[in-house]
Amino acid sequence: MLRPIKKIESAAALNATQKMIQRFALWLCEPGRSAEKVTEAEIKTLMKTPQEAAWLWSFLSGKHNGKTHLQRAKYLAALSANQKSRLKAWVNATTNVGAYFDLTPTGKQIPVDSPFIKNKAAKNHWDNLKDLMEAFYLKGLNQGLAYLPDGNPTADKTKALNYQTFRMDFIKYHQLDKHEFAREVCVMCNGELRNTSIDHWIPKADYPLLSVCADNLVPICGECNQSPNKGKKKVHTGGSFEDWFHPHLRHPSGTLIITHQTSDFGVALNTTRTSDAARVRNLNALFNLEQRWTREFKAEYRKLYNSILTRQQKKGTPLSLESLCHQLEEWADGLNPNQPHYEVHRVLAETLRDANRLMTWHAQLIDEA
Ligand SMILES: [Zn+2]
Q1: Span 207-216, average pLDDT
Q2: Neighbouring-strand partners of residue 147
Q3: Cα-to-centroid distance, 341 and ligand 1 (Å)
Q4: Cα(240) to centroid of ligand 1, in Å?
Q5: pTM attached to this predicted model
Q6: pLDDT in tens, 8-29
Q7: What residues contact 156, with CB distance under 8 A and at least 6 apart?
Q8: Which of 171, 282, 268 is nearest to 219 (CA)?
Q9: 61, 69 in Cβ contact below 8 A?
Q10: Using CA atoms, how far apart are residues 321 and 328, in angstroms rounded to an integer?
Q11: Alpha carbons 63 and 74: distance in angstroms, whole number
Q12: What is the whole-number distance in angstroms between the Cα of residue 191 and the centre of ligand 1?
C-alpha cells in the first residue's frame, strides 16, 4: 500500500453483479417468497433485463458439492419469516461496506455474528447461504458475468467480464514499467508480482455477499495472499474498521514510510500521520511486511556485498574506501522506482551511506578479500 491502488474501469461489471447479488438475496428474504416461488418466470420479474434474468437462471442450474445453486436458493426462500427478517438485516448490513469507512468515525460496525438464530439448523442455513453466494465468484466470475466490463448487460459470454480479464486489466493498469517483459510489482508489498491471485480484502468465507464486490477485490502476489500472511485473517477489530486501512476505501495515500532499524539491520514500517499508528500496526501484522522487507533488505545487501567483493578479487588489489563509495553510488544511482522493492533498496542505500557503517563495511570487505 505504499503506492496508489485504483479501481479499474471493468469494476463497473463487478458493481453491477454486486447489485444483482444483493437484490437476489433480499428477494429470497421476502416474507411471501417460498421455495415454489423461485422459478424462471419469477426471476424474469426480478431482473431488469432479459440478459440478466437469463444469466441468473442459468447460473442457478449450476452444481456445487452435489447440490444445485437453485436448491440452495429454494432452501433459503423456505426459511421461517423470523430467520428471513434477520437475514435481510444482515444482507443490508454486510453489502454496503463503504458505510464503515467514513472520514469521521460513526461507530458503525459490521455484524460479526451469524445472521441466523443459534440452533441445530443454523449451520445448515449458513452453509446454504455461503455456498450460494460464494458461487457467484467461484463459478459466476470464473465463467463470465452477465455484464460487459463497462457494466452493461450482455448475453455474449466472450465479451463478458471474467476472472482472467479482470485480473489482467488490473495488473496492466498498475504495471509500473509497461514493457512486456518488465517485472511486475505487487500493489500490497511492492515485491515482484508472482502467482497473482485475487484477494477478498474482507474474507468471503465470513461475508459471502462480498464475493464479487469491486471494493473488496484486489489482485496481489501469492505470498501476500497466503498464510502466514493475509490468508483468511480478519481486517477489522470485532466489527470495527476504525484501526484498519482498506485498499480502496481507506488507502494510506503516500503516508507510509519505510525506515532503517539499526537494532537488527532491518527495516520498520512507519507513518507520517500519527493518528494512523494502529492502522500501520495492523497492516504490518496482516502481511508481515517488516519481516519480509527486512529479509529483502538483507538479501540485497548480501548481493551488493558479493558483487563488490567479486570485482575486487578479480582486480587483485586492495579495495580503497573511495572505490567502495563510488561503487555504492553507482548502484544507488541505478535504482529504479519501477522495479520490485525499490523503496526497501532505497533505504538500504541511505543506510550504507552512513560513515560508520561504511567504515565497518570496508573493513569486512578488505578482510574477506
Ligand atoms: Zn505482495
Answers
A1: 96
A2: 153
A3: 10
A4: 25
A5: 0.94
A6: 999 999 999 999 999 999 999 9
A7: none
A8: 171
A9: yes
A10: 11
A11: 14
A12: 6
